From TrEMBL, chain A:
The keyword Transmembrane helix applies. Keywords: Cell membrane, Membrane, Transmembrane, Transmembrane helix, Transport. PANTHER family: OLIGOPEPTIDE TRANSPORT SYSTEM PERMEASE PROTEIN APPC (PTHR43386), PEPTIDE ABC TRANSPORTER PERMEASE PROTEIN (PTHR43386:SF25). This is Peptide/nickel transport system permease protein. CDD domains: TM_PBP2. Residues 77-266 form the ABC transmembrane type-1 domain. It is found in: Cell membrane. It comes from Streptomyces zhaozhouensis. One of its GO terms (cellular component) is plasma membrane.
UniProtKB/TrEMBL annotation, chain B:
It is found in: Cell membrane. It is a multi-pass membrane protein. This is Peptide/nickel transport system permease protein. Belongs to the binding-protein-dependent transport system permease family. The lineage of its organism: Bacteria, Bacillati, Actinomycetota, Actinomycetes, Kitasatosporales. It comes from the Bacteria. The chain crosses the membrane at residues 101-121, 133-157, 182-202, 244-263, 283-306. Keywords: Cell membrane, Membrane, Transmembrane, Transmembrane helix, Transport. Residues 97-302 form the ABC transmembrane type-1 domain. Its main location: membrane. InterPro entries: MetI-like (IPR000515), MetI-like_sf (IPR035906).
Length: 283, 317
């Protein structure tokens, strides 16, 4: 007997909540992507006293060094989202590649690789990020690689499981018996069947990647001052929250809205792709 | 498989795992092209001073020798000397780890009962309105990065309402228990995320248990309400949920780094964050190794608990 899916109806319409989330995602994306070309002033130039409230020419006031908060907000989202997208792409490529290979080649070598993957999964992602940040020179690449590597084991497990299910159906066996090469089998028999699972999984990894890249900014990893970064802006401006709360609240609100909306959306999508493990997303 | 054999096997597997993790920790920090000498000698050291530092730190040896020296020391409980401050790494860890364990313990003490209760309640009503409300609410909180939750709670409770101290300072040589109010905000932040994640996991395990034939049989016998939830659903849901709590404890490690940094709570996470900022490699390696060992230990404990709680093994009594 198939256990009832934990959600209600896996096939029901997306519903108003999901549409709201999609709207919020698009809005924050628009601020992050269109912000840098549209921002009126420089994000690094001092234009007033620190923690000044909103006033003429400064619609949102200034931050802890007296820089224009509006300009910094418009410039600061790009890096967080771009790193998260990059890390998700890295994790999905590595995970899907490795997962397909491991799912089809169930040999002795595969077992050893799986052990290594399990080992990497034990590492708390933030610890991995801090370790790479210590070893590598300060830069955004270290953050991207760390976040990508932290997500890879989960992607790989999901893809491997999906590939195994396909391999067990007999398409693969038939194709092999017909004389198709492995590339053709992967291209025509495996990929079309696991594409949905891999994409839904990428959504879940993206949620975790947004968390981690924002946290990296908050902890001061990656490209440092004076560049704007929503995560780091929260940390920088925390001491003056009593004078002007906007420099803390606005980046926090943007990050929170985006993270929550993406999380809800990814959950809805994952629900529709049966058999997807969502538990790894919260690490 | 008997208990002793199971335990022996798992403990034996722990040793090579930890050894492999130590290679990863060492490799990530030592072999990547970071500038350890510059961090110690200062940015405007002369070439001779830099050479002296390399000599003193033994950085001219080949990586394998350096790893073996470090790992050999670690086995004996000696993790080297921190670059900044010059204190022994194991002493620093020993002074900070109890603070973090206290915080994690408090967070778990809130997380576990609350997420079991909420998850069981929602899971027994899978698909109904109450379940949707809980599931969506929990998903909302789980979607927030920890530092955003921390900042929001800090701003609200310590800033606007002024109920709690803004910074979790521990008096020198004292214990956090001397001033218990400083523990509230960090523990609350960790618990918020923990409850969100935990409730989701318990809920899906309970929803699966509720859909099983033995629950249907119990319902047909006329069992219902709280009795059904506690006596019939919970035992089936608890074993998978326990393994999930192992995962949460792993996430607590990451959460502690963020939360301790936000509140300035003197635990091992704050120490690690500062060590990374100063590129204090021995300290980073030492703390990372201890955190890896702690994570492995929790996973093992969770597996043991899951095994003990699994009703199919009949070892609950």
């Amino acid at each position: 007997m198939r256990p009832a899916s934990p959600g209600t109806g896996a096939r029901e319409a997306l519903g108003p909540l999901a549409w709201c989330c999609a709207g919020v995602c698009l809005l924050v994306l628009a601020v992050a992507v269109l912000g840098p070309p549209l921002a009126p002033g420089s994000p690094t130039e001092q234009v007033g006293p620190p923690f000044a409230g909103p006033g003429a020419g400064l619609p949102l006031g200034t931050d802890f060094l007296g820089r224009d908060l509006a300009a910094r907000l418009l410039h600061g989202g790009w890096v967080v989202l771009a790193l998260a997208v990059g890390a998700t792409a890295l994790a999905t490529l590595l995970g899907a590649g490795g997962g397909i290979w491991l799912g089809l080649a169930a040999g002795r070598g595969g077992e050893i690789v799986m052990r290594a993957v399990d080992l990497l999964a034990v590492f708390p992602p933030l610890l991995l990020m801090l370790l790479l940040a210590t070893g590598a020179p300060a830069g955004d690449l270290a953050v991207l690689v760390a976040v990508g590597l932290a997500a890879t084991p989960f992607s790989l497990r999901v893809t491997r499981a999906a590939t195994r299910r396909v391999a067990a159906t007999g398409y693969v066996l038939t194709a092999r018996a017909r004389g198709d090469g492995w590339t053709a089998v992967v291209r025509y028999d495996v990929l079309p069947n696991i594409a949905g699972t891999v994409l839904a999984d990428a959504g879940i990894r993206f949620v975790a990647a947004v968390h981690l890249t924002a946290t990296a900014g908050f902890l001061g990893l990656g490209r440092g001052a004076p560049d704007a970064n929503w995560g780091r802006m929260i940390r920088e401006n925390l001491p003056g929250a009593a004078l002007n709360p906007l420099p803390v609240l606005l980046p926090a609100a943007l990050l929170a809205a985006f993270a929550v909306a993406v999380n809800l959306l990814a959950d809805r999508v994952a629900e529709r792709v049966a058999g997807l493990d969502t538990s790894g997303s919260d690490g | 498989m008997s208990w002793s054999l199971f335990l022996l096997r798992r403990l034996a597997a722990l040793v090579p795992t930890l050894a492999a993790l130590s290679v990863l920790v060492f490799g990530a920090t030592e072999l990547l092209p970071g500038d350890a000498v510059g961090a110690v000698a200062g940015p405007d050291a002369t070439e001779a001073e830099r050479a002296a530092v390399r000599e003193r730190l033994g950085l001219d040896d080949d990586p394998v020798t350096r790893y073996l020296r470090w790992a050999g020391g670690a086995v004996r409980g000696d993790l080297g000397t921190a670059y900044t401050g010059g204190r022994a790494v194991h002493e620093l860890i020993a002074s900070r780890l109890p603070h973090s364990l206290l915080l994690a313990g408090l967070a778990l003490a809130v997380t576990v009962p609350l997420s079991i209760a909420l998850g069981l309640w929602a899971g027994s009503r899978a698909g109904r309105r109450a379940d949707r409300a809980v599931s969506t609410g929990v998903l909302l909180v789980a979607g927030l990065p920890e530092f955003v939750t921390a900042t929001a709670l800090w701003w609200l409770l310590a800033g606007e309402l002024g109920l709690l101290p803004r910074v979790s300072l521990v008096p020198l040589g004292g214990s956090p228990l001397d001033t218990p109010e400083i523990l509230v905000l960090p523990a609350l932040t960790l618990a918020a995320t923990g409850v969100a994640v935990g409730t989701r996991l318990v809920r899906s395990a309970s929803a699966e248990a509720v859909a099983s034939p033995w629950i249907e049989a119990a319902r047909l016998r006329g069992v219902g309400g709280a009795r059904l939830a506690v006596r019939h659903v919970l035992p089936g849901a608890l074993a998978p949920a326990t393994q999930a709590f192992g995962l949460i404890t792993g996430a607590l490690v990451g959460g502690a780094i963020v939360v301790e940094t936000v509140y300035g709570y003197p635990g091992i996470g704050l120490e690690l964050q500062q060590a990374v900022a100063h590129r204090d490699i021995p300290l980073v390696q030492g703390i990372a190794l201890v955190l890896c060992a702690a994570t492995l230990a929790t996973v093992l404990l969770a597996d043991l608990a899951a095994r003990a709680l699994d009703p199919r093994r009949g070892s609950l009594r």
